[in-house]
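Table 4 source record.
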Amino acid sequence: MKLAIYGTGGVGGYFGGRLAHSGHDVAFIARGDHLREMQNSGLAVESINGDFHINNPVVTDDPETVGPVDAVLLAVKSWQVPETALAMQPLVGPDTFVVSLLNGVESTDQLSEVFGRERVMGGVAKLFSFIERPGLIRHIGHEPTLVLGELDGVASDRLNRLSALLGDAGIGVERPDSILVAIWAKFLFTTGWGGLGAISRAPIGVLRDESSTHTVINACMHETEAVARAVGIPLPEDIIARTWAFIQALEPTGTSSLQRDIAAGRPSELDAWNGAVVRIGRRHSVATPTHDLIVSALQPLEKRARGELTF
């Protein structure tokens, strides 16, 4: 299979790097200093599972130079989906499918509106990784795993082929009965503490152990669960207990991408995380006061990062 990794950050850079390092046909779509460093010096990955380096990756900011591929693994920020869906058109041939590895619960619908639901596959990336500096991805936590599934739950041939390819590269693959449940389960996890971390500037170890922030995380998770059930997503009855068990096992210094973006003054996924809980909750008459407060508290910083507010 010929793959394109659209968005070579912590997720795309790590998983795409593992595939390329294993000899698979991978083209990276990147931009800015990260693109230039990859073109000049390759892609380096520092990982708790062992470091590796891709000497001469196929990398560009112009999808036209790559042409149609078998699959696009999409790993951009959620707010970039509309523009990315247009920009990636040269990668999409008659049989190409797009795998959404984005945080949030709205990207599969957004992609389906552009490409058709039959061309979109759902995915969840499980790992803690980020761009340490241009040309370097740093993986600091969690066994790297991709959770994959067709939106209709069918075990398709393309899903089988992609799973085998990832397995060959040493990447863990999970295939749940419902990828939508898996996407919402991760959404409950990320919205539980991502925005709170951005407000407090504290890592997950502090947030989970301090009684005050522990209570806020719990309230966030219960609100997200209520919204999911209102939408019709059959999350497991013990989803909050499972999520807490996962949080307790995390490396205590971990921070969310939303927290890191806001701290650095960059546009974040606030609207696609806590903002989406509020927005979808209102649509289904579900109260989400904790998420509403988090969004309100972070909105000035988000607007400043987007050039909409100066202070």
